[in-house]
Structure formats: structure tokens, C-alpha cells
Design brief:
Distance between the termini of chain B: 61 Å
Oligomer: heterodimer
CATH superfamily of chain A: Pyruvate-ferredoxin oxidoreductase, PFOR, domain III
Strand order of the largest sheet of chain A: 2-3-1-4-5-6
Number of domains of chain A: 1
Number of strands of chain A: 6
Order of helices and strands of chain A: EHEEEHEHHEHHHH
Mean pLDDT of chain B: 95
CATH class of chain A: Alpha Beta
Low-confidence stretches of chain B: none
Largest sheet of chain B: 6 strands, parallel
Mean pLDDT of chain A: 92
CATH superfamily of the largest domain in chain B: Thiamin diphosphate (ThDP)-binding fold, Pyr/PP domains
CATH topology of chain A: Pyruvate-ferredoxin Oxidoreductase, domain 3
Structural class of chain B: alpha/beta
Strand content of chain B: 15-25%
Number of strands of chain B: 22
Structural class of chain A: alpha/beta
């Protein structure tokens, strides 16, 4: 399998764990995997990306523009920022909840994400996700990084089996959080399936 | 055994497999995970340390290498400046056991000050440098670096870049590896004591030796020629080679030459690789080092080759390369289509900018705010330093007037004091930076009678680079609990007469103390002590009473906490990011913000 998957969002949203689970699951299914992620200063509330490259053809650690099969975006503006990476027939799974940077709160330009989702609709196949709604039963937006994996698995665009992903969640999430995270994954899966 | 690790992890595992005996370094993006990886894998018989700075790390490692042990030193490229003093000399003295210095470069720059090129240091101090293009290569190449170091009894530089350091790949490592046996230090003052006569002799020897190494490296397996016999060739180094491979995947006829050892330049290899080439383009990041070597080569051997690159404007000098940039350069040079066309995004709407900010609940925000409030209406300069707290420059705090290099804040505040006597001159330094390079500056202030206030932002960790321990934390990398070096006592010991230790969240107390210090002559120090929020992770939260919130946004305007936002005419607190530090509780004029700690020192 050759597949490029990009994850993007804002520092602190948990994109790194999601990308690690995807990478581990793809390897578990016998694929060669490379990945890269934002580390350092930008993690402090900046825009962050993870690039997961599945298959033997990947040389660059980062996905070339126009090459990603799938974008998992934890924030609408970040999906737009990284849209250049998506293939013309690629799919973007996008959290509709906007994260407003501190500078926006200061100047109050009224960024709310709707402009971004409207733009995305015109540009590519999108699956919009209301994270507030889906995270409600979990009492925290922190589970969105696992919910979105469930959605990606159910969309059929990830190319990785649901069971493999669940197995990796079991392996990689701290033991006391495994059950909740598995439920989060299945919540996302059922929502899309 | 397969391990999925970062390039830095691959460097660590490669070193362990090479039988490394001692690993020392100082944290710095993008190099920090090397030492962390060593600590996570079996490393029996290996001495592992976070040294106080890079100079200390290299000196510790040099002694190990004099003793015949294999030693690895890790740092970011700026750290090599700090370590350059021992580096220049150990290059002349040489080693017995392998000594490999990893200096991670950061094209972009992504998390650094200048776009410095470690390969220049290799040339400057006349020692070999290895330049991996991927995490997999880094694993094997670091082992080669140890071999070359021992074979030629010289320290060797190893230069990965951010995209190699932070790229993950599967590495196959043996089930078992062990630290190398070594002889121990054998006294020989004619060999180990640097004197002018010895330097003169060794300088001559190492230049002769470098000719030998260049010949040896001409056969090195990572100096490669691929593709066809085209008259137009692509020369690439480091990760730019990976980008070129990606761009040329459908163009197997193009000659691709890859230089993995920039110094000593593998001249014989380059000459044979360039046979039949009429025109080339050099793809490398940071400085045009290989391009210059090719120009020299062409000059010396009177080669009729047009050499393109940074020096004739065909490749940008600054910033990192990428597949896309490489594609555009090759499209214009070779007239080929590299095909990275995606969705047309030329009509992208204006995107919110997201400069990095101090975390919600970060004690640095409280410290900066206290000093800012205390100095309202007074002329004051704020000298920042390297660490998370550089982010204190962001609006609305705006509390970093200068930032230069590690430890510079303490000394620059003195320079401002001597030339701007009407201003109160502050320096802000983190606890790890204080130990790394702040202490000598304090002595300088005391000795040279500066009027300055040193604010040590002590969060008991090296936060920015991933929470490494340091001498003030009481833990070391051998897994031991050790005596903490007390910053207050250090300051007192160095002659600072007034040293205060305060909780930055006790706002009123802090403001009073800062004012008091500002009115006194001499060197004063305030240690703002509160743990890094990313480590202590309190469960407390603040909450807004929407009835009381008048929507004045004073809380947002004053402290710019990322947990605070404005919606529907009221301030909203994001319960997922808020830590209940209570700073905003102290600021709200209507008492609309409740926090479980009640807002310490609410008066």
C-alpha cells in the first residue's frame, strides 16, 4: 500500500498520538512507514502537522504537495492552511470547532471557522465533524484525537483495519485510559459508518 | 529487533550498537532526543549525562576518548559555538577512542537563532563531518563515524538536520549490544598536553592526514552516483538528497550525485562522478559549502562545468529546502515536470496566525506580569534569554526587549545599565540556562558594579526542549537522586547581596518585591519559583460567572492566556486548557472569575 496521510491542528490537541497510532497500525499490517511531526517551540499553541507516509516510495520525510490521500484536521483553518498537501481527489476530515489564537482574542477579528469550512467545501471532498457533539459523552475535547481515527477508519480512506487500530490503541494508550479511548474510537467509527 | 524511532533515536541506537561508553550533551532542538533515547534503551556500562553546557559535555567526552573509550556528544548547532573552545584544540590533539560530536543543524530556522552550518566548523577545525539524509542512514552512519574517528584518531562531527532528526523510521537493531572494552587513560604528556610546539607539529600532520581521509571517503558507500549519464547533473547533500530522489522518481536518466562527507571533500569521487557532466546544480541547505568545494575542484582541475547553486542565485540562501522547492528548481534547471500539482489554493482566505505562546497556567506569565505591573510608569529594559520564556515577548505581555544567545540576558542588562542609567535593567533567565551560561554573567555584574535585577524563572526543568533535568532538579541521567544545586545559594555565594525567592502567583507580594529591588543599587536577584505547568498538571480550573463578567476583556488584554477567549460579549474559559492558576482571578475588576485556589494573594 502507498498512502500519505497528513494530520494537522494546533499544539496541544493530540495530533502526535493519532499519527503514532496510524503509523504503528500501518506497520502492524506489514507496511513500510515513515513519519514526521512538529516538535519544539511551535508546539506551544502554534500550528502543528504530522506527516505519515505509508509504502516504499517515500523518500522525503514530509509529504509533497498534492500527494496526501487524506487530511485529518483538528481545526478548520489548519485544514485550509495544509490543503496544498491534499491530492485533487483526496479527502479531508475536519473538526468544525475553531480554535482562536490569543492574538485573535485581542484584536477580535471574529474568526469563527465558517469561512474556512465554506472554502473547504468548494475545494475537496470533506467530512465535517462537530467535535463538541461527539466529545460530549466523554466530558473532554481531549478524546477527539481518537474519535477522528474512528471516523477515518469508517470512511474507508485510511486503508487500515479497524481491529488493527483498536489493537494499537490498546498498546499505546496508558492502561487506565484504554477503555475510554476504545469507546472514543468506536464513537467516531459508528458516527461515520 | 525492529524499532520505530525518530532520527535522533536512530543516532542513539547506532551509538549504542557501536559500543559507546560515554554520552554527554546539552538539550537543544532538534538534538535533545538522542540522549533521551539512550536512557530508554539498555545501556549497561554507559555513563550518560546532561552536562551543564556543551563545552562541559565535550570536555567530559574528550577525556573519555583519551582513555580509549567511545564517546558521543550531542547538541544543537548553536551549542557547537559554546563547545568550540575545546573543539578547536581537541581537533589538534586527537583521540584514542572514537569521539563523535553530533551537532544538529536547523535550516529554516525552525527553533534556532541563526542558520548556522556545522560543516563550516568541520572545515574550520579540520575534522571529518558526516551528513545523513534519513533516519535509517543516520543509524548506520553514526557507526561509521565512530570507526573513522578511531581509524584516524580524530574527533568526528556528525551533522543531521531537523528533518532527519525528527523523521521516524523503522530501524533494525541487534537483540544484544554492549559497551566497548577500552584500555583506560595512559599518561603521555607529549601527546595530551597542548603546547605551541605540539600544535605546530600536529597542524602539519592533520593536513596530511586529511588528504588520506579524503581518498578514503571517496570510496565511502554514502557518496553515490545514481541515474543516467546526463550532461546536466544534480548534486545533493543531506535531506536535500531525499527531496531530489522524490523529484526524480520518474526521471531515471538524470545523474544524481550525492555527497555525504562534505569535509574532507572526497575529491577523487567527485572528479569521477563529474565525468561527462557539463552543467550541474547543487542542492544543499544552509551555506553553499559543497558548491564552493565544487568550484574549487573545477578551478584546480580546469573542468569545463557550469556550477549552479546558491552563489549564482539559482537556489535560495535562506530557509530549508523542500520537495516542492527542489521540484521548482529542477523544473527550471532540467526542464522536467516533477508533478506535485494538487488543489489550487491561490484563493485561500486569510488564515489566523498562530505564534507560539506561553501555556495556560505557565508561571512565567505570572512572573512577567508582576514585573510589568511593578514597572508601570517607569523606564525599564527587559533582557530575555533562550527558553520557553522568550515567548514572554508576545503581546499583550511584551516583556522581552532583547534576546541574543544563551545567558546573554544577564550580561546585556549590565551593558544597558552602564549606558542607560535612567532605566531599570532586568534580565530574565531560566533555571537551566542559569546553570548553562548565566553564572559567569552574575559574577561579572557583581565585580563591575552593575545596577541590575536578575529574575531567575525557576520552573525546575528544561521545559522548551522537553523537560530534561538539570543541576537544580536533584535528578541526573544515571537515574540517581543527587544533591540539588541551590540557585539562591549560588547567587549569594557569587556575591549577590539581595536574593529573594517568590511564588510568581502571589501577585501583590511579587509587585512589591520588584519595586523594592528597583529602588536599590547593586545586583539584586529574584527567583520566581513555581513548577512548569506541563509537568505539575494541576486539576484545578477557573470559571467565569457570566452574570458578573462585563465583557471588558481586561483579563485577555493584560495576560493573553490561551485558555481565555471572547464569545457572545463575555469572556469564556476553556476548561481543557485552564489550570486554575488564578492569575486572571487577580486581574478581573468585577470578581467574575473564580478559581479553586481563589487567586493567591487576592487583595
Amino acid at each position: 500500500m502507498n498512502k500519505d496521510i497528513m494530520l494537522c491542528g494546533v499544539g496541544g490537541q493530540g495530533t502526535v498520538l493519532s499519527s503514532k497510532i496510524i503509523a504503528a497500525a500501518a506497520m502492524e499490517e506489514g507496511n513500510s512507514v515513515h513519519s514526521a511531526e512538529t516538535i519544539g517551540m511551535a508546539q506551544r499553541g502554534g500550528s502543528v502537522t504530522s506527516h505519515v507516509r505509508i509504502g516504499e516510495n517515500a523518500h522525503s520525510p514530509l509529504i509533497p504537495w498534492g500527494n496526501a490521500d487524506l487530511i485529518l484536521s483538528f481545526e478548520p483553518a489548519e485544514a485550509v492552511r495544509n490543503l496544498k498537501y491534499l491530492k485533487k481527489d483526496g479527502v479531508a476530515i475536519v473538526n468544525t470547532l475553531a480554535t482562536r489564537p490569543v492574538s485573535e482574542s485581542l484584536s477580535d477579528t471574529g474568526y469563527d471557522g465558517a469561512i474556512m469550512t465554506d472554502y473547504l467545501k468548494k475545494k475537496c471532498e470533506c467530512i465535517f465533524v462537530d467535535s463538541v457533539e461527539l466529545c460530549k459523552p466523554f466530558g473532554s475535547s481531549r478524546y477527539f484525537n481518537i474519535i477522528i481515527l474512528g471516523i477515518a477508519a469508517a470512511s474507508g480512506k485510511l486503508g487500515i483495519k479497524k481491529e488493527t487500530l483498536l489493537g494499537m490503541i490498546e498498546k499505546m494508550v496508558p492502561e487506565k485510559h484504554v477503555e475510554t479511548n476504545k469507546r472514543a474510537f468506536l464513537t467516531g467509527f459508528k458516527w461515520r459508518a | 529487533m525492529k524499532e520505530y524511532v525518530m532520527g535522533n533515536g536512530a543516532i542513539a541506537l547506532g551509538s549504542l550498537c557501536a559500543g559507546v561508553n560515554l554520552v554527554a550533551g546539552y538539550p537543544g532542538t532538534p538534538s535533545s532526543e538522542i540522549i533521551e533515547t539512550v536512557s530508554k534503551y539498555p545501556h549497561e556500562g554507559v555513563h550518560l549525562e546532561w552536562s551543564v553546557n556543551e563545552k562541559a559535555a565535550l570536555e567530559v567526552a574528550a577525556a573519555a576518548a583519551y582513555s580509549g573509550a567511545r564517546a558521543l556528544v550531542t547538541m544543537k548547532q548553536m551549542g557547537l559555538n559554546v563547545a568550540s573552545d575545546p573543539l578547536m584544540s581537541v581537533a589538534y590533539i586527537g583521540v584514542k577512542g572514537g569521539l563523535v560530536i553530533v551537532s544538529a543543524d536547523d535550516p529554516g530556522p525552525i527553533s534556532s537563532q541563526p542558520e548556522q552550518d556545522t560543516r563550516r566548523y568541520a572545515d574550520f577545525c579540520r575534522i571529518p563531518v558526516f551528513d545523513p539524509a534519513s533516519a535509517e542512514e543516520a543509524y548506520r552512519m553514526i557507526q561509521d563515524a565512530f570507526e573513522y574517528s578511531e581509524k584516524y584518531e580524530t574527533p568526528v562531527l556528525f551533522r543531521p538536520t531537523t528533518r532527519v532528526c525528527h523523521a521516524y523510521a523503522s530501524i533494525e537493531i541487534p537483540e544484544k549490544y554492549s559497551a566497548k572494552d577500552y584500555e583506560g587513560f595512559v599518561k603521555d604528556s607529549r601527546r595530551w598536553v597542548i603546547f605551541p610546539r605540539l600544535s605546530y607539529m600536529n597542524h602539519g600532520k592533520l593536513e596530511k592526514r586529511n588528504v588520506e581521509i579524503a581518498k578514503d571517503l571517496s570510496a565511502y558507500k554514502y557518496n553515490t552516483v545514481e541515474g543516467g549519464n546526463s550532461e546536466k547533473a544534480v548534486v545533493a547533500t543531506g535531506v536535500s538528497y531525499a527531496y531530489a530522489k522524490e523529484c526524480l522518481r520518474n526521471h531515471a536518466d538524470i545523474k544524481l550525485i550525492r555527497i555525504a562527507t562534505a569535509f574532507p571533500f572526497p575529491e577523487d569521487f567527485a572528479l569521477s562522478a563529474l565525468a561527462g557532466v557539463k552543467e550541474l546544480i547543487c542542492l544543499e541547505e544552509l551555506s553553499p559549502y559543497v558548491e564552493e568545494q565544487l568550484l574549487k575542484l573545477a578551478g584546480r582541475h580546469r573542468l569545463d562545468i557550469e556550477i549552479n547553486g546558491k552563489l549564482n542565485g539559482k537556489v535560495p540562501h535562506n530557509g530549508e529546502n523542500s520537495v516542492e522547492l527542489t521540484g521548482a528548481i529542477l523544473k527550471s534547471f532540467l526542464g522536467i515536470d516533477t508533478g506535485f500539482d494538487g488543489i489550487d489554493v491561490s484563493d485561500t482566505p486569510e488564515l489566523p496566525v498562530r505564534p507560539p505562546v506561553l501555556c495556560a497556567g505557565c508561571p512565567h506569565r505570572a512572573s512577567f506580569y508582576a514585573v510589568k505591573k511593578a514597572m508601570e510608569g517607569r523606564k525599564a529594559f527587559f533582557c530575555g534569554d533562550i527558553g520557553c520564556y522568550t515567548l514572554g515577548n508576545a503581546m499583550p505581555l511584551d516583556m522581552v526587549d532583547t534576546c541574543l544567545c544563551m545567558g546573554a540576558g544577564i550580561t546585556m542588562a549590565q551593558g544597558f545599565n552602564h549606558t542607560n542609567s535612567d532605566a531599570v535593567c532586568f534580565s530574565f533567565v531560566g533555571d537551566s540556562t542559569f546553570f548553562a551560561s548565566g553564572m559567569t554573567g552574575v559574577v561579572n555584574a557583581v565585580y563591575n558594579e552593575a545596577d541590575t535585577i536578575i529574575c531567575v524563572l525557576d520552573n525546575s526543568t528544561t521545559a522548551m526542549t522537553g523537560h530534561q533535568p538539570h543541576p537544580g532538579t536533584g535528578r541526573n541521567m544515571m537515574g540517581n537522586i543527587v544533591d540539588t544545586v541551590d540557585i539562591a545559594k549560588v547567587l549569594e555565594g557569587m556575591g549577590v547581596k539581595k536574593v529573594l525567592t517568590l511564588d510568581p502567583f502571589e501577585l501583590d507580594k511579587c509587585i512589591t518585591a520588584v519595586r523594592e529591588c528597583a529602588d536599590e543599587k547593586g545586583v539584586k536577584a529574584i527567583i520566581f519559583k513555581s513548577p512548569c505547568i506541563a509537568i505539575s498538571k494541576p486539576e484545578t480550573k477557573a470559571s467565569i460567572d457570566p452574570e458578573k463578567c462585563i465583557g471588558c476583556k481586561k483579563c485577555i488584554r493584560e495576560i493573553g492566556c490561551p485558555a481565555l477567549s471572547f464569545s457572545g460579549g463575555k469572556v469564556v474559559i476553556d476548561a481543557n486548557t485552564c489550570t486554575g492558576c488564578g492569575l486572571c482571578t487577580n486581574i478581573c475588576p468585577t470578581g467574575a472569575i473564580a478559581s479553586q485556589c481563589g487567586g493567591k494573594d487576592k487583595s
